[in-house]
Please model this.
Amino acid sequence: MSVLRPLDKLPVLNTATILLVGTEDALVQQLADSMLKEDCASELRVHLARSLPLPSDVNRPRIDLIVFVINLHSKYSLQNVERSLHHVDASFFLGKVCFLTTGAGRESHCSIHRNTVAMLAHTYRSPLLFCDLEVEEFRATMAQRLVRMLQICAGHVPGVSALNLLSLLKSSESPSPEDP
Model:
C-alpha cells in the first residue's frame, strides 16, 4: 500500500502543486482550468486523480495541497474519497488537505447528506468547502480561493503557514455536528 507523504519530494523554487482527487472528471477538469486562469505569483501545477494511491512515479512533483472533491449526488464519489484517504500520510492533515463538496444546490437530487460529509471532514480535522462547480461564477470563486490556499500551503505567503490557515478556517466555520 503506497502512502502519499508531504515531504517525500523536495520543494521546487516558486512552484506550488495541488492534487485534485475526484470521480467527476468533467467538473474537476473545469475547476483545474479555472485555477490555471488565476493570477499566481508562483508557477501553478494542477494534478488530477480519480483516486489514490498515485502511481509511483519518480518524476512526480511534491504535492502541497490535496483537495478531495465529493459530489453529493453520487455515493460512489464519497466511497472513492473514503478509500483514497487510507493512502494519505497523517501529516498531510496538518493543514494540507481539504474537502470540497459539489451538488449541494440541488438538495432534492442528493444521495449523500451534508452531515455525512461534515462528519468526514471533522474526523480528519480538515476544512470542508461547499461549491456548486457546475456554475461558472462559483467555480471561478472557488478556484481563486484554492489558489490562495495552495500558495499558503506551499510556503509562498510570508508569515502564514498551513497550520495557521487551518486554524483560521476552523475558527470561521460553523460548529461541528457534535457540538451542542
